[in-house]
Amino acid sequence: MNKYFNIRYEFDRKLVHDSIAQRLTLPGSDYICVADGVIMNVANRRPEYLEVVNGGLLTICDSSYVPLYIKWIHGSRYNQYSGSEIFIDIVASRKYRMIFLGTQQNLLNGLKRELTKINPDVENMTFYELPFCDVPDFDYPSIARMVEKDGADIVWVALGAPKQEYFMHRLKPHLNHGVMIAVGAVFKFFSGVGVQRAPDWMVRYHLEFVHRLAKEPNKQISRCFHIVRTLPGLLYGEWKHKHRVMNADNRCVDG
């Protein structure tokens, strides 16, 4: 794992899946954050949220731009591992029992229908509509009992950022087993009834945000505004951090 923009990212896909498999052999639960540009932005404005994002098993990079920034500043090459990709990789693997926690029952119904075409085992899995409430108001002990009664290994959470990360952080102490993964809009993408993910060519050319803006302008405009407003400072801060580390290393060599 490497820390960029103050977030502990894991870019190695095999290591991500190996870490999940290993964690499931141990007592207790943990969570994975799927960090896009919004999460990176909010985490660097809210110290308590940054602590939540870095407090899980690992964080994968859902942004196609962060690897570009890292390449420009550090010269290191990494690839995005999006929430859609890890979601479909795990669902299609047929390795785990899963439970799907989100809002809007029509989306959950559509998601179950579509995922069953990919993994027939999904037909007998639980899709649970969480109540609409603030993070402190969820009944975490009750939700944990439901998850454990279900026997799920993977707990998919789709509440939108930053709510879903806070939710996992609070649910973790109540669970005796399982890895939670927050996937934001992924339930919509695969439900067949919600906003679809951008076409592959848009993803390839880093234009997915344009698609999201067109489909959800009210939601995405404010997010994009905060990202654009704070991005220069984040890039400069990362550049300064790189040079501080380089200078420290040079002093150690000279000493």
What does this structure look like?
- This protein is of the alpha/beta class.
- It has one domain (2-254).
- The chain contains twelve helices and eight strands.
- Strands 4-3-8-7-5-6 form a six-stranded parallel β-sheet, with helices on both faces.
- Helix 8 (163-171) links the parallel strand 7 (154-158) and strand 8 (179-182).
- The chain is globular, with a radius of gyration of 19 Å.
Determine the mean pLDDT: 89
Write down the domain tally. Answer: 1
Radius of gyration: 19 Å
Beta-strand content: 5-15%
Query: Based on CA inertia axes, which overall geometry fits?
Result: globular
Q: Which residues sit in consecutive blocks of at least 5 with pLDDT less than 50? A: none
The helix-and-strand class reads alpha/beta
Spatial order of the strands forming the largest sheet: 4-3-8-7-5-6
> Could you give the distance between the termini?
28 Å
Q: Number of helical runs?
A: 12
Largest sheet: 6 strands, parallel
Summary tags:
alpha/beta, six-stranded parallel sheet, 255 residues
Overview in brief:
With 255 residues, the chain is of the alpha/beta class. The protein has helices spanning 13-23, 37-43, 47-53, 65-74, 83-93, 105-118, 140-150, 163-171, 186-191, 200-204, 208-215, 217-254, and strands at 2-4, 7-9, 30-35, 58-61, 98-102, 126-129, 154-158, 179-182. α2 packs across α3 and α11 packs antiparallel against α12 (217-254).
